[in-house]
TrEMBL record, chains A, B:
This is Recombination protein RecR. Signal peptide: none annotated. It comes from the Bacteria. The gene is recR. The keyword Magnesium does not apply. It comes from Polaromonas jejuensis.
């Protein structure tokens, strides 16, 4: 379309960004090359650095550069509570309330059968093994011997988030785990990341 | 905000993209690292390649990897007509009509006093020197000796595009150049890049 294969290639590549169509990608490429080449190189280096260094926390599944993320490694956190969220952004929203001192499990997604996202894609088995570990003989530990005493479901209050919470609740309750859900102080249909701190804090206290 | 400096750095860097705020940048970073690391590396490589290889055409000022772009170098184009556009995307929109066989000058912007964009920032002097060259004694060539016989102003029909066209028209007319403007078949207030081909073709024929 333009006179430059490199420009066209950049426009094509920028369409990999979620929510960016052909026109937006062309404008972004033009802006960077015409007005902000240092910014373009900064993005390139940040992408390469992040791809090379970011991995999943072995305990909570969030994105981190360590084997165990700083939250999971923090001895001050209450290890008997485990809060299940969809994304690191949701976890960050909960952390900003300063109303929760337990640990997290980050699904890095949500059940979405229409998009082909099933239980294994969001690490549900890892979550179940974390909450109900097995002894050397492969038997599930009895409730009183488990570290996690309560699982708080903080998936979004969207249709898919509710369905995800439902599936997790069913599975964990059948294994004798106490499962609670953030109270519906969070407006139905909204996404956690965009909710004000007070509402989230209230919903944490009122969890059911 | 997250547990990863690399993730936060990527989110910060993505805010360099026009129209991308903090929330969008965080979602883009999360999406790339969780779901599309190959896409992330593709964007990084495309940025580096484009920054390293894309420059301005010495004749028309558009983005290209050559010293002279393929349009300017094309011996089949009518060198007596010069069409002035704001961006390569606008030029591409005109090319798609197949209604114009002359050459282009790409401003790579528009006059925008409120944003501090003045005549020198959009290469107006380069345009004037192109249209009215000087002889060895530094005198402007007389009209009959000039290669460019007509300048067609095809800046956008926005307030800033109209003002840019007005400034160019005034300057060139005072130098004895025939200056025309795309006909107002193009809806007032719209941007060329988004106009349908037929309207642009019609406006080319009806230029005034
Ligand atoms: Zn962790
Ligand atoms: Zn050129």
């Amino acid at each position: 379309m333009s006179d430059s294969n490199a420009l066209d290639g950049l426009t094509q590549a920028l369409r990999k960004l979620p929510g960016v169509g052909a026109k937006s990608a062309a404008r972004m490429a033009f802006h960077l090359l015409q007005h902000d080449k240092p910014g373009a190189l900064q993005i390139a280096r940040a992408l390469e650095h992040a791809v090379g260094s970011v991995k999943h926390c072995a305990l909570c599944n969030t994105l981190t550069e360590q084997d165990i993320c700083s939250t999971c490694a923090n001895p001050q956190r209450d290890r008997s509570q485990l809060c299940v969220v969809e994304t690191p952004a949701d976890q960050a929203a909960l952390e900003r309330t300063q109303a929760y001192r337990g640990l997290y499990f980050v699904l890095m997604g949500k059940l979405s059968p229409l998009d082909g996202v099933g239980p294994n894609d969001i690490g549900l088995q890892i979550l179940f093994d974390r909450v109900v570990p097995r002894n050397e003989r492969g038997e599930p530990l009895p409730a009183e011997s488990r570290e996690v005493q309560e699982v708080i479901l903080a998936t979004n209050f969207t249709a898919e988030g509710e369905a995800t919470a439902h599936v997790i609740a069913q599975a964990l309750k059948s294994r004798g785990v106490q499962v609670t859900r953030l109270a519906r102080g969070v407006p139905v249909g909204s996404e956690l990341e965009y909710v004000d701190l007070g509402t989230i804090a209230h919903a944490l206290v009122d969890r059911r």
